[in-house]
């Protein structure tokens, strides 16, 4: 009997944690279909969306000089706060998490000691909402670190949903300017937690980073954002920007095969 129960538990866990392939919500396709020039006002990607939800975004461009892959990437200079992005307005199903992938590269401006400079992906649940959460690159005296806008205890430095939103800097992770950094953020709108991987390294633990906006239920937009002091000459570059969903529900064919296999195992256990 114990063996049958153990086999049944294994089958249930496999069915629970198997994930279906990612479904694309929006893919910039590496900005390859965009014209070189101003980004705001252009439409492209899959599905084709217009990049027009912007502030001070006249300076955001599509350029071909510095790219991660292909022949195009977006560029957003510093010298102030500005952002640009497409409106996605997607409400995830209860079984889905939202996956945001992007490569970010940034230079250091003429004020490298200004620790407030950062280039990030800023996620919102509506046009006038607070930040759902944000992640990106933070400059501290010429050394870059990953940063998230989340909730944490400033005394213990532990993530804590009961605390007020603030920037949390992973000061132990050092990154170099003028180098592409790959971000992979998976957002669970049920638990209001995020899983963050930077250059293949998980930061903070599995789904351990709380949303800044604990009431967020919709993935409205994910802007390319620059927060930079006036007078700086830093530039941030973005490539391979993609939003997709991951479902915890296995595909019907896989679930059927797994069920048959489990039944077979249980029959063998009974014998």
Notes on the structure:
With 271 residues, the chain is mainly β. It folds into two domains: 1-18 and 250-271; 20-249, Sandwich (Jelly Rolls), CATH 2.60.120. The chain has two helices and 19 strands. The protein has helices at 2-17, 252-270, and strands at 23-27, 37-38, 43-44, 49-50, 61-63, 73-77, 81-84, 87-90, 96-106, 118-124, 131-140, 143-151, 165-169, 181-188, 193-198, 201-203, 209-210, 219-227, 235-247. The strands form three sheets. Strands 1, 2, 5, 6, 9, 14, 15, 16, 17 and 19 form a ten-stranded antiparallel beta sheet that branches. Strands 7, 8, 10, 11, 12, 13 and 18 form a seven-stranded antiparallel beta sheet that branches. Strand 11 and strand 12 (143-151) form a beta hairpin. Residues 1-10 and 12-17 have low confidence and may be disordered.
At the fourth level of CATH, the homologous superfamily of the largest domain is Exo-inulinase, domain 1
CATH level 3 topology of the largest domain: Jelly Rolls
Helix content: 10-25%
The average pLDDT score comes to 85
Distance between the termini: 11 Å
Mass-distribution shape: globular
* β-strand number: 19
Rg over CA atoms, rounded to whole Å, is: 21 Å
CATH class of the largest domain, named Mainly Beta
Number of helices: 2
Question: Which short descriptors sum up this protein?
Answer:
271 residues, Jelly Rolls, 10-stranded antiparallel beta sheet, 2 helices, 19 strands, 41% strand
Brief characterization of the structure:
This protein has 271 residues and is mainly beta. It has helices spanning 2-17, 252-270, and strands spanning 23-27, 37-38, 43-44, 49-50, 61-63, 73-77, 81-84, 87-90, 96-106, 118-124, 131-140, 143-151, 165-169, 181-188, 193-198, 201-203, 209-210, 219-227, 235-247. Helix 1 packs antiparallel against helix 2.
């Amino acid at each position: 009997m114990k063996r049958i129960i153990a086999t049944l538990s294994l089958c249930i866990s496999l069915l629970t944690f198997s994930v279906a392939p990612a479904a694309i919500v929006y893919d910039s396709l590496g900005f390859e279909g965009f014209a070189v020039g101003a980004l705001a006002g252009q439409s492209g990607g899959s599905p084709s969306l217009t990049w027009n939800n912007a502030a001070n975004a006249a300076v955001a461009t599509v350029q071909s000089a510095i790219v991660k892959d292909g022949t195009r990437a977006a560029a957003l200079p510093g010298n102030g706060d500005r952002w640009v992005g497409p409106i996605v307005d997607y409400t995830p199903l209860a079984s889905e998490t939202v996956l945001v992938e992007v490569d970010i590269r940034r230079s250091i401006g003429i004020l490298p000691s200004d620790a407030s400079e950062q280039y990030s992906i800023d996620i919102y649940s509506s046009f006038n909402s607070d930040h759902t959460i944000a992640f990106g690159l933070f400059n501290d005296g010429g050394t870059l670190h990953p940063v998230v806008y989340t909730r944490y205890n400033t005394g213990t430095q532990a993530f804590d949903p009961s605390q007020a939103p603030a920037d949390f800097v992973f000061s132990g992770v050092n990154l170099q300017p003028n180098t592409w950094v790959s971000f992979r953020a998976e957002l669970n709108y049920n638990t209001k937690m995020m899983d963050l991987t930077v250059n293949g390294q998980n930061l903070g633990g599995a789904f351990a980073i709380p949303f800044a906006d604990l009431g967020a239920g919709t993935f409205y937009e994910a802007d390319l954002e620059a927060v930079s002091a006036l007078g700086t000459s830093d530039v941030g570059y973005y490539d391979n920007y993609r939003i997709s969903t991951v479902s915890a529900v296995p595909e019907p064919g896989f679930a059927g095969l797994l069920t048959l296999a489990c039944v077979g195992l249980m029959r063998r256990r009974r014998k």
